Each structure stands twice: as structure tokens, then as C-alpha cells.
Amino acid sequence: MAESRHKSLPEILRRLAPVMRDPYILGITGPPGAGKSTITNELIRSYRDMDKKVGVLAVDPSSPFTGGAILGDRIRMHDHAMDDGVFIRSISTRGTHGGLSRATVEITKLYGAYGMDYVIIETVGVGQTELDIVGVADTVLVVLVPEAGDSVQTMKAGLMEIADIFIVNKADREGAALISSEIKQVLSLKRAGSGWTPPVLLTSALRGEGIEGVIEGIEKHRAFQIESGMLENKKEKRIEGEFSEIIRGLLDEKIAIKLGDKDVKEIYARVKSGEIDPYEGALLVISKII
Predict the structure, then answer these.
(1) How many CA atoms lie within 13 A of 165 on its CB side?
(2) Would you say 79 and 45 are in contact if contact means Cβ atoms under 8 Å apart?
């Protein structure tokens, strides 16, 4: 319902508001093949051992033909399929500008109404999704592997900036210590003023090694944000972003309807003929909507 943008969704969210929890949101991103889903699987296991409920959103690339998610993360996390305290959902990007599905915020709210303590958002790991996760998550975990590249120096600057915790997965492989050292060196040069230095943690998720350290790192970052006021500030920015997104969505719907109107078609004909330029034509269309 949230992903399909059903017209009844706003009313449902309003009715659920009194019972909604405010789950702690983890964003997991990094290059394909880094083991993000395996780490997610181990985090679920650890949180369930603590009797915490966990919701997972696996943001997959969309099929250009069906618009559907194509990776099938529920199969990769089949260990938790029968657990009532876990809900795993794959959602497609549906061609959104930033890569994250428009339904992400709504589904997170629905998870909160269900009583989830943690929501894990695992991004597709390519493109702008890596950077957009920072606007949704309370703690961002960037997962890398020893063979991530020739050097951390070549890593996207944005990816270095958004990470609250770095995880070097598959740490039993050669080069793990080197990439860990390089990350720390880059951080020492780039990070200043935030008060938080992202830890660089080594894991071997398939073996379940290092996950306790990740949990500890998450809780330390959570405590730091609560004490500093950063967590509250993030939530305020999230509400602001959601508000803006709703406005844009409503305008998109109105524009889609208006594009079929006779007067809008006439404006387009004038643009096509060169009588007016596209910008002027767009302003004319907007003036008819607002």
C-alpha cells in the first residue's frame, strides 16, 4: 500500500499515529558484494536475542519493465522468515531522483506502528542511494571489503562523509588491515568539528565474527547523538524533508492530471513550435496549477 501510493495511506497513517513507536533507524550501504545483507542478517539475529523487534527495508533497483524489486532479499534472509518479531520487505527505487524509494519513510512509520524497535534500511549500494540514506537513517554504516579498490583515496568523497561507522567485512581476507588503516588516515584529515569519530570495525559476517562490536558501535553512536542533541536535530530535519516531499508529490499528481488538459497541450504546442521556450512554457503550466 505504501509503495503503491494508495490514496488511503495518509488517513491510515493519521489513525496509527497514536500507537506509533519511534524506531531507531540504521542505514547500511556500500558497494555490491560487500556483504551488506549478511551483516543485516547477523544484526537481526543479535537484536532478536535481545528481544528487540526488527523491520528491514531492502531498497532494490527497479525493473525498467515492471517497476518491481529484482533482488529478493527475503530469500537471502530466510532464517527469520517465521519470526513474528521480524518483517523484511524489498522495495524498488522506482526511478526516484535520489535512488531511495518514496515509500521508505511511510513504511518506516508502519514498522513503528507494528512496534519495531529497530529498522534497518539496506540500500542497493550504487549511485545516489548511498548518499541519500543519511537523510533517513539515525546511524549510517558503510560496508567495505579489502578488495574495495586500489585505495580508499579513490572512494567517493560523499561516502566518506556520511559514514557514522565503517565496517570492513570479510576481514579474514588479505588487505583488511591495510584498508582499515587507510580509512583511519583519511578520516583524520577530513573529519573535524562533529565531535564523533567514526570507528572502523572488522567483521567476517558469514562467520558471525565482529557483529557484537558493530552493535556496541551503534549504541555508542546513539548515546552520543542523544547527549549532544544531534538525534533530535536529525528527526526534525527528517520531518522537514518529509513535508517537502509530500508537497512535491502532490504537485506531481496535479501536474500529471493537468498535462492532459487542452490548455496545457496548447502550451506544449507553442513550445514545440518554438513560439515560446520550454522554461516559459513550464511557468505557464505552473501558473495554472497553483
Answers:
(1) 25
(2) yes
What count of other Cβ atoms lies within 10 Å of the Cβ of residue 104?
24
Exposure of 212 in the CB half-sphere (CA atoms within 13 A):
3
- Confirm if 123 and 40 have CB atoms less than 8 A apart: no
Domains and CATH numbers, the chain: 9-228 (3.40.50.300), 240-289 (no CATH)
CB 134 within 8 A of CB 28: no
**How many Å apart are CA 287 and CA 290, to the nearest integer?**
6
Range with lowest mean pLDDT among 98-107, 195-204, 244-253, 281-290: 98-107
Taking each helix axis as running N to C, give the angle between helix 104-114 and helix 9-16, from 0 to 180 degrees, rounded to the nearest 10: 40
The average pLDDT across 247-252 equals: 81
- HSE-CB at 43 with a 13 A cutoff on CA atoms is 30
Other C-beta atoms closer than 10 Å to the C-beta of 191 total 15
Residue in this structure with the C-alpha cell 536475542, named with its chain if needed:
49
End-to-end Cα distance, the chain: 28
Grid cell of 280 as nine digits: 516559459
pLDDT digit string, tens, across residues 172-220:
888 899 889 988 888 887 655 678 999 999 999 888 899 999 999 999 9
pLDDT digits (tens, 9 = 90+) for 49-92: 999 999 999 887 654 333 444 444 445 566 777 788 999 988 87
Residue 3 CB neighbour total at 10 angstroms: 20
Cell of 42: 547477523
- Provide the β-strand partners of residue 57: 89, 121
